[in-house]
Design goal:
The complex is a heterodimer. Chain A is mostly beta strands. In chain A, 3% of the residues lie in helices and 49% in strands. In chain A, the strands form eight sheets. A six-stranded mixed β-sheet of chain A has the order 2-3-4-5-10-9, with no helix packed on it. Chain B has one domain: Alkaline Phosphatase, subunit A (3-Layer(aba) Sandwich), CATH 3.40.720. Chain B is 38% helix and 16% strand. The chains are: A mainly beta, B alpha/beta.
Chain lengths: 407, 424
């Protein structure tokens, strides 16, 4: 791995350039579309904004050149990949796979091998097998057996020194980035944790499990510091008697004052995909959920991505029950959606009147926020990321397409 | 009257029926109230208990994915994200979501070549239970109740532990006492306790009146129907009199089985089998995974795997497996194609079932699907074949007839036959 602890961090997910871009989300338009033969599972743009990496339902990771569309296959996982991150210097791609492993790959490898791939690999569902084709392939520089069970998430600390992962062994693991040596296990989730992020302050990490239990851990000692109840993001499906929920995506804003967790709420029939999408916004200092970001039409589905844009708005991506999707834009301080006003007590004799308590409770409720702009997509969207300049974003779609939009 | 196979030496069906009739005539209530064990000499009870053939059905309701369970296809177009793992049977692999079951595969066999030709929940479930694609026929549990339950056993012959599900008349044309008794989880049957405000004395008088009215009603009528319902009522009453079944479950056992609902139900299932219930069916819900198929299978099979393997191990360790047929099944499988919701839909074209124990050759695999799992490749069978196989395994000759009011009705579908290579 080429993590260099002295190199300036270029992780756009947690640390952005303070300068704003002045982009206008309402002007977003699709400018490119790259395709793969299998549905995509997620996407990330490398810190230099040159490539987009996607996971697919064929175990492969694919790198698309955002200018030319040239595709390179990164081959090494034995399962699907649902999460990527980059080393601090931006030269190494990290991938977490459902094979329990964390893969390390060169973003721009010196060597690529041209391989004739079996026709079946490229066969689509309705078509007969095509003649064999060749594919440029890259192998990992390193594969780490990280979890007994699936590695759900990987994140590199802002300072590049630490990597965190979580998996279906119910563990959150802290690794030293330099030698990928396990520093400690964080034990405490009773159910499977789905996402984990290191806070930009470098002192804490936060993870969320399927039950919506968010645990804040000390990065140095691995001890639990606090818990946040995000059970709004989970539901027990009474009909089918199973729990479903958790963070499908998680991100901090650039200064770490807020955390966003994307997923679902109001589970009705999760087995049919009948639940509402949601992004919970958590104020880090108070550890309170301040906003529920809801989609414009609240159609059933899942929110698969959350991104804090350097211009202050929040972006999410949605996969609908009917194989449609959206990319939605929210402003947390949107004047059009004001926080519910506190009720004024009319009982002059009561020092702590019920009205005061009621108003306090009303104020404590998260704001149900609607987006100020929606980009409609004709397929379910499963992943979202921005280029470092904040002027373009990519989405990974269920039809195998990677689409690039410009703001 | 069907002839039972030689292996069912302890209790053939003819003896059952004759004995049952004799017992009923000799004093139904007295026998029922006394309980199974106390009616028999300890030696005879032990012998009968040891020889009684029983069935444990584990029904994965909604349609477990064959890819994510018994017929994994990792690395193929529709294989999904999970890997296959080796099992205790060299050369046999199952999905990595069932590591505990993998260690018990030497006790089980898999049929991977089932084609039900239906993608409908109700039709698939009825086919799997009745062994016929249509018509009014009894479930395998009810057939087992009729031909395997000892006449002196006052407990229900067919108990289904579930909380919900498609309702159905499980006994078909058999007597009502062979219908499933449904337990809602680990709670005792409903409506058998005294209503609020009703004293024991009032209840006794009410019961006497009911019996008196029954006697009057029977005059000039066939007794069979009334006796059958009486028996059903008494079976339920006998069940809940065994308060230890429905009390707090043992903490150490719950640690082993899991404290979730399925763990508790399987622990109760083990107890019911030990008590002598002929067929115990446990439903594990949550496999109709049109969305999030993979995350749901992670969660559901995580519950199923350890619990089922524990139950199977306990049955084996108690020396019961030679007499208990264990079946794990669904009403269909799930589509090869993964939809846009990361889901799989209904698929009756190529699915799998696992079975083991009484009468079943362990460690085998019957049939196969093609490379992508989209169709049966060889040894295609359907639920009719399975139905025959189950019954033959426990010693009921499914190719004989039920005798119902003078009519001969084939027990199993005559157009199908047992999967002979699975039978011991």
């Amino acid at each position: 791995m080429s993590c260099n602890e002295d190199i300036k961090v270029v992780d756009p997910e947690v640390v952005g350039d303070v300068a704003t871009t002045g982009v206008d989300p309402t002007k977003a338009k699709e400018i490119q579309k790259f395709t793969h033969t299998r549905p995509l599972t997620t996407c990330r743009v490398d810190p230099l904004g040159k490539f987009a990496f996607v996971g697919a339902e064929d175990y492969g990771i694919y790198r698309f050149d955002l200018e030319t569309g040239d595709k390179v296959a990164y081959v090494g996982h034995d399962s699907w990949v649902r999460r990527f991150d980059f080393s601090a210097d931006g030269k190494t791609l990290l991938s977490s796979g459902w094979d329990g492993r964390i893969g390390f790959w060169d973003v721009e490898p010196a060597e690529m091998v041209e391989v004739e791939i079996a026709a079946a690999v490229e066969k689509t569902e309705k078509e007969e097998a095509k003649p064999a084709v060749t594919q440029l392939q890259v192998v990992p520089t390193k594969m780490i057996e990280a979890h007994q069970g699936f590695s759900r998430w990987v994140h590199v600390a802002p300072d590049g020194k630490t990597i965190v992962t979580c998996g279906n062994d119910k563990l959150v693991k802290v690794w030293s980035a330099k030698k990928m040596k396990l520093r400690r296990d964080c034990v405490g989730h009773q159910r499977h944790p789905w996402a984990v992020m290191i806070h930009p302050n470098g002192q804490e990490l936060v993870s969320e499990d399927i039950m919506g239990e968010i645990i804040v851990w000390g990065l140095k000692d691995g001890k639990q510091r606090s818990k946040i109840d995000a059970s709004v993001m989970t539901g027990f499906d009474l009909k089918f008697q199973a729990d479903m929920g958790g963070a499908r995506a998680m991100a901090f804003n650039d200064d770490g004052t807020i955390l966003g967790c994307a997923g679902t709420t109001n589970v009705v029939n999760a087995f049919a995909g009948q639940q509402d999408p949601i992004i919970c916004i958590i104020e880090w200092e108070s550890k309170k959920i301040t906003h529920h970001l809801r989609t414009a039409d609240n159609k059933p589905g899942i929110e698969w991505g959350v991104h804090f844009h350097k211009d202050g708005f929040v972006v999410g991506c949605f996969a609908g029950q009917s194989n449609n999707g959206t990319v939605e834009f929210w402003r947390l301080d949107d004047p059009a959606v004001a926080k519910p006003a506190a009720k004024v007590s009319t009982d002059l004799n009561a020092e702590n009147s019920e009205s005061d308590e009621s108003a306090e409770m009303e104020n404590a409720k998260p704001i149900e926020q609607k987006p100020f702009h929606v980009v409609k997509v004709d397929k379910a969207v499963r992943g979202l990321d921005f280029t470092p300049d904040g002027r373009r974003f990519t989405i990974a779609c269920a039809d195998g397409s990677l689409r690039v939009y410009e703001l | 009257m069907p002839m039972t196979k030689q292996r069912n030496k302890g209790c053939n069906a003819v003896d059952h029926d004759l004995s049952r009739r004799g017992f009923m005539g000799g004093g139904l209530m007295a026998g029922a109230m006394a309980g199974f064990g106390s009616l028999l000499s300890p030696a005879l009870a032990k012998e009968m208990k040891g020889q009684q053939k029983q069935i444990l059905q584990v029904y994965l309701q909604g349609g477990v994915s064959q890819f994510e369970s018994w017929d994994p296809k990792p690395g193929t177009t529709y294989g999904g994200p999970f890997r296959a793992i080796p099992t205790s049977v060299p050369g046999t692999q199952i999905c990595e979501l069932m590591p505990h079951t993998a260690r018990k595969m030497h006790l089980l066999s898999i049929v991977r070549s089932i084609n039900l030709r239906t993608n409908d929940h109700n039709q698939g479930m009825l086919f799997m239970e009745k062994g016929r694609p249509a018509g009014t026929y009894p479930y395998v549990g009810s057939v087992a109740s009729k031909y395997l339950s000892h006449p002196n056993n006052p407990l229900p012959g067919f108990v289904h532990i579930t909380t919900r599900g498609l309702s159905g008349e499980t006994a078909g044309f058999l007597k009502a006492q062979h219908a499933q008794m449904r337990l809602e989880g680990v709670k005792p049957p409903k409506h058998l306790g005294l209503p609020k405000g009703v004293s024991e004395d009032l209840a006794l008088r009410s019961e006497n009146l009911r019996l008196q009215l029954n006697q009057q009603f029977k005059t000039g009528r066939s007794r069979s129907l009334i006796d059958s319902y009486d028996t059903s009522f008494d079976q339920a009453r006998q069940l809940i009199k065994r308060t230890h079944l429905f009390g707090e479950q043992d903490e150490k056992e719950l640690d082993r089985y899991g404290r979730h609902w399925f763990g508790r139900r399987c622990l109760l299932a083990r107890t019911l089998l030990e008590e002598g219930v002929t067929c115990v069916k446990v439903t594990h819900h949550g496999y109709d995974t049109h969305a999030e198929n993979f995350n749901f299978h992670v969660e559901q099979l995580d519950e199923f795997d350890k619990t089922f393997a524990t139950l199977l191990g306990d049955i084996e360790e108690r020396g019961m497996l030679d007499n208990v047929l264990v079946i794990v099944y669904s009403e269909f499988g799930r589509t090869p194609k993964i939809n846009h919701k990361f889901g799989r839909d209904h698929w009756g074209t190529s699915l799998s079932v696992a079975m083991g124990g009484c009468g079943i050759q362990p460690g085998g695999i019957v049939g196969s699907t093609n490379a992508d799992g989209t169709a049966v490749k060889d040894r295609e069978v359907d639920a009719g074949h399975l139905f025959h196989t189950y019954l033959q395994a426990v010693g009921v000759d499914s190719q004989q007839n039920h005798e119902i009011d003078g009519r001969a009705i084939p027990i199993g579908d005559p157009v199908t036959e047992p999967i002979k290579e699975l039978l011991l």
